[in-house]
Amino acid sequence: MGGLGFEQDAYSHVTLTQEIIGYRIYLPFFGREYVWLPFYHYLGASLVLVSGKLVFPVYILRLLSAFCSSFVLILVYRWLKQLGVNSLFRVISVLAIGLNAYWLAYSTMSMTDIFTISLLVAWLYLIDKFLKNHENKYLAVASVFVLMSVSTRYEAWLFMAISTVFIFVFSNRSFDLAVRLKKNIVSCLFFAVPSMVFISFWFIYCYLGTGDPLYFTHDPT
């Protein structure tokens, strides 16, 4: 197979989305229903249904990637501006990302990569806002982005854990250790609990369906 080698995965994402549209359930797909996390496919199916099924899943998922790609570029530019980076370097940074050949390719494919990156950038941006303003509303929104991400790709589980540790260390710098620990633990729970609930659900789902809670670590295909 030529190209960048993602054609088979892209086709599978479209097929899974189509299955959900047709039957409203997560149908068996050669064991991948216990390997591939579900949020991306359900989101794609929902968007197709909202369109009245006028747009095929493959185009919906490609449009989603293109939208998320643009969102990342806009958010990076805005974030760099808030950090005080001058306009020339902001433009150069955005162009360096947006004109990268792989970025352009994935931005037009029915893949989870750009979608997940957009969620990651969004939640990191919101964590930065939280650390500067100490307003829980930023963590609340960040927790939603994290939840969507951890229910889409497994790499997000690691990034969620790293972000939680980062919040624990830096969210409150009070000299009173007891106060600091209490506030930091609360912030971590506020950020991570929704994602931890989903991850626990996924272990249970795999166990009930296959007898192995770690079945997702094996690729049946």
Molecular structure report:
The protein is mainly α. It has one domain. It has 9 helices and no strands. It has helices spanning 7-23, 39-50, 57-82, 87-98, 101-106, 113-133, 136-150, 155-170, 177-210. Helix 6 (113-133) runs antiparallel to helix 7, helix 7 runs parallel beside helix 9 (177-210) and helix 8 (155-170) packs antiparallel against helix 9 (177-210).
Level of helix content? over 70%
In this structure, how is the largest beta sheet organized?
none
Distance between the termini: 17 Å
Which range does the strand content fall in? under 5%
Shape estimate: globular
Q: What is the subunit arrangement here?
A: single chain
What is the H/E order?
HHHHHHHHH
- How many strand units? 0
Mean pLDDT: 85
Task: Assign the structural class, choosing from mainly alpha, mainly beta, alpha/beta, alpha+beta, or little secondary structure.
Answer: mainly alpha
Short structural summary:
The chain is 72% helix and 0% strand.
Summarize this structure as a short list of keywords or feature phrases:
globular, 72% helix, 221 residues, single chain, mainly alpha
